[in-house]
Design goal:
- The protein is of the alpha+beta class and 669 residues long.
- The chain has three domains: 108 residues, Nuclear Transport Factor 2, Chain: A (Roll), CATH 3.10.450; 163 residues, Alpha-Beta Complex (Penicillin-binding protein 2a (Domain 2)); 293 residues, 3-Layer(aba) Sandwich (Beta-lactamase).
- Helices cover 30% and strands 24% of the residues.
- It is built from 20 helices and 27 strands.
- The strands form nine sheets. Strands 1-4-5-6-7 form a five-stranded mixed sheet, with helices on one face.
- Strand 18 and strand 19 form a beta hairpin.
- It is elongated, with a radius of gyration of 42 Å.
- The N terminus is likely disordered.
Length: 669
């Protein structure tokens, strides 16, 4: 407890309760058989004894005169009364403080206690500034410092009150204005706290990525609650919030208006609605807000409201209107987006109308964050995946600048989920884009005859096609178009581990990206032996990529330049320097190979009207459950993309999903 400090007549000394004033001095009686101050020697009084008797008599006379004149009854000082009143008030000794006023003790004590509750004071410090006395009246000045318990600046103000002499002492002349200037009968204190609306994550055009959606807002009208504590307890039980914190907001808020307490998205509201309906005094309002939804949730992440378990785990006090980014960009840019609250201490009348604002702390709105997401591309990706019976993910990037245009994750209940940005999967034959670049760098021709048999032993390991391919006595171009694993396993004999690693690095595999969300840039360890090199060449073995990796690889084939991915334009991402890792001959060869896949090979389902489509398919085992990942990696125009979906069969192709995405994109152009 902070002690009251006297900054007036006794500045620098802590306030102390005055001791009871003496009522007079009473002489103690002498023992029987003797007289006060008397000494006997041999039965005769000595001269000195007589002198002491005379002195004692004089002292007694002076004492009696002091009693008559009031010298022995020092009166309480006005400063002492002020100190005692402020100290009792500060320490919550409201009855003791009330006894030092001219008001009805019960009413004064209730007023002091009520003011403390009305502002939700977590701590109160009162200091005497000075006292001016005019005969039997006086005026005291004090300063107050109140912690409103909301994490903001304290409320400090200067107050004053008159005193007058009552009998032998002083008393505070009571009016409600003693508590705070301007307070009068019929008015009460209240605190209005308002959080600004959460700022937006915007697409590349400046449009919000959060559509307007239904939100259930649960609150109360404080003045209509018969049992506020019961309401707070019921809401706390249903939501996991702290009842005392809810009650504090109810007690301190204006009585007439709707006090928002908790907001729920529809699914969350349905889970607790039955319990909420049993809580007395709750009011539920339906609102349309840009808050909980997003057309690009896989990258923006999610937002939690007042009941988010993450807030409770962090011990953050309950505040209506609080939002917390739980993942993705919402989490990364939490401080940028959320802003700061506006807080006002007000006086309101019995009807709940605010009559004056005593103190205001202006808040600050959050700042929008503009992303590289293109709503047109994003919606096309969403529509392409929404109806799939299996989990899938798609990432699209701009071939001209590396901007991430769309990120979609479609997860099906009962199946493993796929992550578009930070997933780590084997790409299967889709990785032959990389191994073909390495082979083209060795001078292999597109028409070189490379057989595609049902099996091919390399480095002591037998490689087969999964799904099985009919034997082809074909060219390198045809082998690529049909994603022939046995052909590329054999072609690995023309490579070294270093050459494959250099090609992978040219496509950005393993680069350290500076994205504001978690993303995997791929990995491949140096092959140990010919069998591992063959495995890596067909996108298995140690190779791990994310859909984002493969979308960037397709962008390199289209533009000839590797560019780091970018997800946010304002504030801007720090980027890496673009590079041109391959010569014209390699790039031209890759484009021809990828067009063959879509025009005549395994990716024909992606061959939609419009500019030519380029791509490669792939399939690889996915644990657990004997599932497979089916891939399509390609580009059309300046949009490069990668899509992966789960399948129970290696023969499933993601090319139809790619075609659906491109058709949706064309329809929206």
């Amino acid at each position: 407890m902070v002690r009251t400090h006297n900054r007036g007549a006794h500045a620098g000394k802590p306030a102390q309760r005055a001791s009871p004033s003496p009522k007079g001095t009473r002489a103690r009686g002498a023992r029987a058989g003797s007289r006060v101050g008397e000494t006997r020697v041999g039965g005769v009084r000595s001269r000195s004894a007589r002198a002491r008797v005379v002195a004692a008599a004089c002292a007694t006379a002076v004492l009696l005169l002091g009693l008559l004149l009031g010298w022995a009854t020092p009166q309480p000082s006005v400063e002492g009364t002020v100190q005692d009143f402020l100290l009792d008030w500060e320490n919550g000794q409201y009855s003791a403080a009330a006894a030092l006023t001219t008001g009805a003790p019960a009413q004064v004590a209730a007023a002091l206690h009520g003011a403390h509750q009305q502002v939700g004071a977590a701590a109160l410090t009162l200091s005497m500034v000075g006292v001016t006395q005019h005969g039997d009246t006086a005026d005291a000045r004090f300063s107050a410092d109140i912690d409103l318990g909301r994490g903001g600046a304290p409320w400090d103000y200067d107050g004053s009150f008159p005193l007058r002499r009552v009998g032998s002492g002083w008393k505070v002349v009571w009016t409600p204005a003693v508590i705070v200037p301007g307070l009068r009968p019929g008015l009460r204190l209240a605190v209005v706290g308002t959080m600004p609306s959460r700022a937006e994550l915007l697409d590349v055009q400046g449009t919000s990525l959060s559509p307007v959606s239904l939100v259930y807002t649960v609150g109360v009208i404080p003045g209509r609650l018969a049992h506020p504590a019961r309401t707070a307890s019921g809401l706390a039980s249903a939501t996991g919030l702290v009842a005392s914190q809810i009650l504090s907001w109810i007690d301190t808020s204006p009585s007439a208006g709707f006090l928002e307490l908790v907001r729920f998205p529809p699914a969350a509201y349905r889970r607790v609605s039955a319990r909420l309906h049993r809580v007395p005094g709750l009011v539920v309002e339906k609102q349309r807000l840009r808050l909980f939804g997003s057309i690009a949730g896989a990258v923006t992440g999610s937002v939690g409201g007042e009941v988010a378990k993450e807030l409770q785990a962090q011990g953050i006090p309950f505040r209506p209107g609080t939002t917390e980014g739980l993942s993705g960009l919402q989490f990364t840019f939490q401080r940028t987006l959320v802003g700061t609250p506006t807080t006002e201490v007000v006086l309101e009348n019995a009807a709940g109308k605010v009559v004056s604002v005593l103190k205001s702390w202006p808040g600050q709105s959050g700042t929008n964050v503009r992303t590289t997401i293109d709503a047109r591309v994003q919606q096309a990706a969403n529509n392409a995946l929404d109806s799939l019976p299996t989990s899938a993910a798609l990432v699209a990037v701009s071939t001209s600048n590396g901007n991430v245009l769309a990120v979609t994750e479609h997860n099906v209940r009962g199946m493993p989920s796929l992550q578009a940005l930070d997933g780590q999967y084997q790409p299967g034959q889709a990785f032959t884009i990389v191994s073909a670049a390495a082979l083209l760098g060795t001078g292999i021709g597109l028409a070189a005859p490379i057989p595609c048999g049902p099996s091919n032993p390399v480095g002591g390991e037998n490689f087969t096609n999964d799904p099985p391919e009919p034997p082809l006595h074909a060219s390198f171009r045809v082998d690529f178009a049909n994603a022939c694993s046995t052909a590329f396993a054999g072609l690995s004999l023309q490579l070294t581990g270093k050459k494959l690693e250099q090609a992978a690095a040219g496509f950005g595999l393993g680069q350290r990206w500076h994205l504001p969300v978690s993303a995997f840039s791929g990995a491949m360890r140096p092959p140990r032996g010919q069998a591992e090199l063959a495995e890596d060449s067909i996108g298995q073995g140690s190779v791990r990529v994310s859909p984002l990796d493969m979308a960037i690889a397709a962008a390199v084939v289209q533009s000839g330049t590797w560019r780091p991915p970018s997800l946010v334009t304002s504030p801007a991402d720090p980027g890496l320097t673009p590079t041109q890792p391959f010569g014209v001959q390699v790039l031209s060869g890759l484009q021809t190979l990828m067009h063959s896949t879509v025009a005549t090979g395994a990716g024909r389902s992606a061959n939609v009207p419009g500019p030519w489509v380029y791509g490669q398919v792939g399939s690889a085992p996915f644990s657990p459950g004997g599932l497979h990942t089916a891939w399509f990696v390609g580009f059309q125009g300046n949009v490069a993309f990668a899509v992966v979906e789960l399948s129970s069969s290696a023969s499933t192709s993601a090319a139809p999903v790619a075609g659906q995405f491109l058709s949706q994109l064309r329809a929206r152009s």
